[in-house]
Every structure is written in C-alpha cells, then in structure tokens.
Amino acid sequence: MNRPMERREFLKVSLSGTGLVLAVSFLGGPLIAVSSDVEEKAGNAGKPWVPNAWLRITPDNVTTVLINKSEMGQGTWTALAMVVAEELEADWKDIRVEASPVRDEYKDPVFGMQITGGSTGVRHMYDPMRRAGATAREMLIQAGAREWNVPSGECKADKGRVIHGKTGKSLTYGELCVKASQVSVPHDAPLKPQEKFRLIGKSMPRLDIPEKVDGKGVFGTDIFIPGMLYSALQGPPAYGARLLSFDKEAAEKISGVQNVVTIPDGVAVVANTIEAAWKARSALNATWDAGSHPDLDDAALDRILSEHMEKKGLVAKNVGDVEEALKKAAHRMKAMYLIPYVAHAPMEPQNCTADVRKDACEIWCPTQFQTAVLQVAMRETGLTADKIVIHTTQLGGGFGGKAEVKVVEEAVRISKAVGKPVKHIWSRQEDFRNDFYRPGSLHRIEAGLDREGRLVAWRHKVVVSPIMERVLPWMVKDGIEPTAVDAIWDMEYSLPNLSVEYVRLGLPIPVGFWRSVGNSSNPFAVESFVDELAHAAGKDPLEFRLNMLKENPRAAGVLKKVAEAGGWGKPLPAGCGRGIAQRFCFGSFAAQLAEVSVDKETGVIKIRRMVAAIDPGQVVNPDSVVAQIEGATIMGLSAALKERVSFGKGGVATSNFSDYPILTMAEVPEIEVHIITNNEKMGGVGEPGVPPVIPAVANAVFAATGIRLRSLPLSPNMLKKALANTESSTEA
Amino acid sequence: MTELLINGKQYRVDLEPSANLLWVIREHLELVGTKYGCGEGACGACTIHLDGEAARSCQLTIGDVHGRSITTIEGVPQNHPVKEAWISEQVPQCGYCQSGQIMEAVAFLSKNSRPSHDEIVQAMDDILCRCGTYPRILRAIKKAAGTGGSR
Fold first, then answer.
1. For a FRET experiment, which of A254, A417, A547, B77 has its CA 20 to 30 Å from that of A264?
2. Do domains B2-75 and B81-144 have the same CATH topology?
3. Does B19 sit within 8 Å of A213, measured CB to CB?
4. Peptide bond preceding A713: is omega within 30 degrees of 0, i.e. cis?
5. Would you list the domain boundaries of chain B?
6. What integer pLDDT is reported at residue A182 of this predicted model?
7. How many Cβ atoms are within 10 Å of A600's Cβ, its own excluded?
8. Residues A308, A293: contact at Cβ < 8 Å?
9. Could you tell me if B130 lies within 8 Å of chain A, comparing CB atoms?
10. Nearest CB to B92; choose among A209, A345, A663
11. Which residue of B has its CA nearest to A658?
C-alpha cells in the first residue's frame, strides 16, 4: 500500500536532490496564501511560518497534489488538483492526487481543523492551492533560467515545460525539479488572471473515477495490514442500557476467535476472520437492562415533541413586532410541521482499522473529520500526536455521517485491549443503529398577511435536538443552536416582523450533520408554509416569493430559472402538479421545481421531473457541480418520499435497507440541472441542492391534489387518507 | 479445502463449504472490488457473476458455487464497453456501489444487448446508490448498448 510520505521524508527527498516538494503556508508569514476573509476568521496573522507540502514534482514528470479534504465522491480531489495545475501550468496528464497526512499543517484554514464538511472543500482551499501552484511554477521558471543562464523574464511555463522564448529551448518539470528545489521560494508569485484560465471553469474528468470503475479504489473496508484480525462489538440494544451478562465461553468456542473483551461500548470479539467475529458476537447472547428510556418508541417520540412545543424556548431572533403585526394582519394562518429522524446510510458502512501498540498508533479510516480521529486516538492511547499516524482512505459515501468517530473509538479501544491490529467494520444493522441521525423536529408557525396579500409577520417555534452543542460547541451563542433555526432565522425573504423560538429537545438519540444539516429539514416547514400563504393570498407561489425577493436578486434568479425551464404556469394533465422552493446556504443559491403526479387510489406520488438551479458563484469543475446537484436532488427525494428512522423499546428499531428503503432507479425522474455562473464569491456545491427538494415536492403534491402534507415522509398512506377525507367532506 | 474458479484463476481456500462467498472473495482472497453493503441481498454492492449470471455474493456460500465460474469486477476487462461508458459518462461519485452496478449491467447487457429504457430500469432497480448516480448509470448503459449516452 502507498503510504503518504511523512514530512521528514519530504525534506529528505528535497535534500537528496530527487525532486521539488513545495511548502506554502497559509498561517501568515511571507507566503500568505489566504484571502483576507480566511485570515481574519482564522485569527492566525502574524504566527510563525509553518510549511506545508501541497505538491511534489518528481523526475518522472509526475506532479502529485496532496489533498487535505476527504474524497467521498463530491469531486473535491479533482477540483483542487485542477486549481494547482492551472497555476502550475502543468500538463493535466501528469497530475496525480493523494490524501494528505493528518497534521496541523493540513488543517482547513478557516475551521482550524482537518475536516471535510459544510461544502467547503474547494472554496476554503482555492486560494492556498492556487498560491502553491503559482509558487512552484515560478521556482521551475527560475531553475530553467539558471540552467540556460538567461534572465527568468525571458522564460515561461507551459504544459509541464519551461521554455526559453528566444532560443526555443525547453526542459520538462521532471528535468527541472531537482534544480527547482534549490531555488529560494518566491514570496509573490503572480496568480493567473481569470481570463487566462485553461482548466478552472472547464469540466474535467474526475481523477478518482477510473480506479473506482475497476474496483481498485481503496475504501476503509479494503485495508489489509500484517497480522490484522477482525473485531465485532456487541453494543447496547437500548439507550443507556447496561450489560448484565454474556456467554464468554460460547463465543470463545467459535473457531478462529482469539479474544473476548469488554470495553466501555460493550463486549468485543476479536477473531481471525470477520465471519468468526460476527458469529461469536451472536454467540455471546449478551443481556442488557432496559436502559435509560425504556418507553421510547415512535409514538412516544411524537408525544415528547408535542409536549416540548408547550415549553418556553429561547428567542433566537426577534425583528420588528410580530405580536402587533399579527394582531393587525388582515389574515392569519397557523400550521404545525413534523419532520422525522433520518439516517445517512452510506453504502460503505462505518469502519476503521486500528493498530495500537505501546509506543505508536496507526489508523486507517474513511473519515470526514481527521482532527476528531486524532483526538480520539490521543485520548484512548495516551500517546502524543507525533506517535499517531492516520491514513484517510476513500470514503464510500459520507454525507456528514463520517464526521462522527464512534467507530474509530471502538476500533482503537479494541486494538488497545488486545494488543493487535484489528479491522472493525460495522454491519449494516450497526451502521443504522449507531448513526448520528438528522434530528427529528416539530414546527409551529403562525403568519399574517395584509390586505394586499403580502406577508407581514412570521412567528416560528421549533423543537429539536442540538448538534453543534456536542460537535462544535463554540458555534452555539447564548444557547441558540444554529442548526435548529437555520433557514428560519435567516430566511431569504424580506419580512418586517419575524420571531424565532428554539426549544431544546434533550434525548439520548444521537444527532449529527446530515447533508445540509438544519437546511435539509427546516425548509420543508418554511417553504411549504410560504406556499400555503401564497395560496391563501390568492397569489401565484412564484410571484408571491419573487415579490419578497426584490432585495435578493440571486435567490430570485434561481427561482426564475427553474420556473422558466420547468414550464411553470403551463397546463399539466389532471392529477399532476408543480411546486417550487428555494434556499440560500453554504454560500450558494439553489432552487428546485418538482413536477409530480398523484394516484388518487393508492396515494402514490410519482416524481415526473425535477428541475434544479444553483448559483454558486465561481465554479471550478462544472460537471462535478452537476453531479452534486443530481445526487442532492435524489437524496432529497429519498428523504421526501421514503425515509424515517424508527424507534422502539428504548432504542433504534430500524435495522437494514429492508425497513429503511431509500430511493431506487425506478423512482428517479428526469433531472435537469442549471448552473448560473458568475464571478461572485465561490459557494459550496455538495449540500445546497438538497434543501429546496422536499418543499418543492410537497408544494407540487398540493398543486396536484389540494392536499397539504405537513409531515414527512410524504407517504402514500398519509396521502390516501387525506384524499379520502376530502372526498367524504366534499360529499357531505 | 474448497476450490474456487474466479476470473479464470483457480483458488484453493482452507475453509468450510459454509463460508460466506462475499467474505471469502473480499477478505481471504483480497479481491476487494466486491463490496459489503447490507449482508441480506438488499443493496447489490456485492454483485458478482456466476457462470455469467449476476448474483449477490453475500447470499451464497463457497459450497454453493463449487464448480462454477465466478467473475468479479477485477475480471471485467478495462476496455469492456460498460467500463468505458462508466468513465465517459462520469458515473461514480463515492464509487462504493459501482462494482455491483457494473456487474449487474454487464450481465444484463450480455442477455439483452439493445434494451429499452424500461428494461434497463427494471434490471438495475435493486442495486442501491446513495450518492444518486442513477441518471448517469442509465446513460452509461444506453451508451454501452449503443442506444444513447450524452457525451
């Protein structure tokens, strides 16, 4: 296996004269490769210069770009390689990518952590990677000029060569890399003007695709190390359950079993094969007490949410005077929206291979959050960071779920307990049971329209469990969990009176980042209710929105785009309807138009067509943006129509795809993606496609049937019942 | 001792016939292109060919496949029209399910070389992809079959 080179090795390589390894700092000092925005947020200006190796050029002409962001299919590796290659004037065919090591130097300059999340992979690394490429290019030009003893101003770099214009002499980067490594590092390498870009903004084939098509991509599950065993953990079936007994001998009798140990998470079995480990786990026949919330199930959860709605919460936002405005409103409306817990369900279940020795620890895992992996390893082993090596593998899906490190904690604890390297793969059942779900939530909204049918007041109360409080506590200000109120307190619409109240739901159900986080759920309530208000005001839902977006032309722009491309307002067959919704988050504007048909007999909602538009500002690799919006649309549809984690007996009842179906090919409509490109500041693209999907579908169902569905998933049963009720009331 | 014929190569494994085929392929023989996704035949990530027919390896034992010819993703040539279409249509995102998708598509096209849209959807419908590459899978299969594709 290729191990990422250590920094010391890099230095050695440079000194022994076999190539150029370029170090560029973004932590201040002479080579500031950050935008002022980044610098300000990181608060690192003036700190000592810390070198980072971002690229390596070797005599075989290969340029290897080291990427500090995890690749989970979102195309970040290719996009960042494009950025380096652009400035380096490299020949694209010579570019390779590999995961960077896990060390301080590779932290995200804004977050101050090594993490892939918040749709930041390209936008946070764009400036440092450009600077790295440009600096290396200048060093190569210097090296060429020295070789020919000519002024460097007479030389230029082009497609992996340095060329002396007057004589036509040229040398490849491979031929020059040793000399270039001896050139002093320029501090002001010029960046290419945008009009000269040859790669950035052009769709480039992803570098990770060929190996994934050949079955050669190395995911976490695909790691093999000498002496490796397999581990399996029997964890508690209910929240807070304590272990009462287990049959150690029965497990030990299974052929291939080497150890049975207890760790804080439960009972672990270590065996020669994964089959033996899993079989022995069943043989443990572990018994547990009823746990901390023995009555927790789906019905109890709904009741708990309702009870919390009556509690007083914290005021997250208060603009104008909602009370007064509601009193004066010509028309008032109220509604409750219920949103379920949903799971990440990446196709690759969580896993980790850990080798904990007395004086060192090595970890291989498909993680989105290397800094958290390192922290867990340090805490569990007592070793210092320099004794811990972490390898990031390819991720078989992440969606935020692989920012959690429970699986790493388990693997490290087990390896430490038995003193052997273990590969620890969660079964699908464990992956569902141990997931940090997108939280369920309950929303109560009251709004007022004036005589002209304009929205004048919005009062919103949300009950939900916090995420940031546990993961990134410094993001919680005055007790307000930002993920609870995202898309509510920062609504795009001009609204004179808005109040947002947050009631914290304390439950043992772990919750975490699910592709677009609070923005994946809250817009269902907000954009559905906006639709309700539009209809109540007798206005077209598009016009109603556009009237409130006069100050927000880019949000209006994506809505207009999907409306135009999706035939908004044009006639449809009976039983069909169109819905729209929009959301700005992670730096990008996105809108979706859903066209659905409803079978009135069965209540089945068929998605006929989705039209998406995203305005993410500057774009690096357009086809990757299209792919991300396609994927986000499908994940959104899956959550809209099918997904809900079920609870029972104080724990998780959901166990596999058989009881947690996700969208399949037959349910996927034609998806049309429009990218609105401009030179605005670069936004994210992994997450913003999700938020408008669910409300667009719910709004389309209303357009098709006159039924307003206010809880997810939008199931055939629920719709069938609602349709039957309307019919009976019409008849009556 | 059980003999297995995989990608034209004979393997001998010192395991009981009841050993699970997926884990033997992946963890014993280290042909890791074949993936574990659900263990109950519900996701298709572990799809291989048995005498050219698509099969879920997680639902089979090595005893079940005695004397039969197994093909895994590693045994499909790089220049196979399906693999080439997968690259030209830029299908994979995370890539984890793609071995199963490709194996299902290859087996399907070998029986139905000019499938209709609906036939493709029906054949591919039980292989899950969480990234949402379905539209591109469809395009790639149409391209490999010479009935479509967009690039």
1. A254
2. no
3. no
4. yes
5. 2-75, 81-144
6. 78
7. 15
8. no
9. yes
10. A209
11. B42
Element (H, E) at A607: strand A605-617
Compute the average pLDDT of residues A677-684: 93
Q: Which residue has the higher pLDDT, A48 or A67?
A: A67
List of chain B residues whose C-beta atoms are within 8 Å of the C-beta of residue A345? 130
CATH topology of domain B2-75: Ubiquitin-like (UB roll) (3.10.20)
Walk me through the domains of chain A, giving residue ranges and CATH numbers: 7-213 (3.30.365.10), 220-290+350-425 (3.30.365.10), 299-341+437-728 (3.30.365.10)
Average pLDDT, chain A: 92
Residues A401-437 pLDDT 10s: 999 999 999 999 999 999 999 999 999 999 999 999 9
Give the mutation candidate from B6, B15, B94, B119 for the A interface (greatest A CB count, under 10 A): B94
Task: Tell me the shortest Cα–Cα distance from A287 to chain B, in angstroms.
Answer: 24
**In A482-575, which ranges are E strands?**
497-504
At A267-308, the pLDDT tens digits run 999 999 999 999 999 999 999 999 999 999 999 999 999 999
Residue A611 binned pLDDT confidence (cut-offs 50, 70, 90): very high
Kindly indicate whether the domain formed by B81-144 is annotated with CATH number 1.10.150.120: yes
CA B145 to chain centre: 17
Q: Which two tokens stand for residue A394?
A: 């390819």
CA nearest to A681, candidates A85, A207, A123? A123
Does residue A703 contact residue A595 with C-beta atoms inside 8 Å? no
- The reported pLDDT for the residue numbered A363 is 98
Distances in Å between the Cα of A318 and the Cα atoms of A26, A450, A496, A623, B142 are 38, 20, 10, 41, 54
| B28:A273 CB<8 A | yes
Contact across the interface for B87 and A215, Cβ inside 8 Å = no
- Closest CB to B73: pick one of A214, A219, A395: A214
Question: Which pLDDT tens digit goes with each residue over A130-144?
Answer: 988 998 999 999 999
Residue-level pLDDT at A729: 60
Facing residue for A275 by CB, picked from B20, B34, B126: B20
Tens digits of residue pLDDT in A176-213: 988 887 788 887 899 999 999 999 999 999 999 999 99
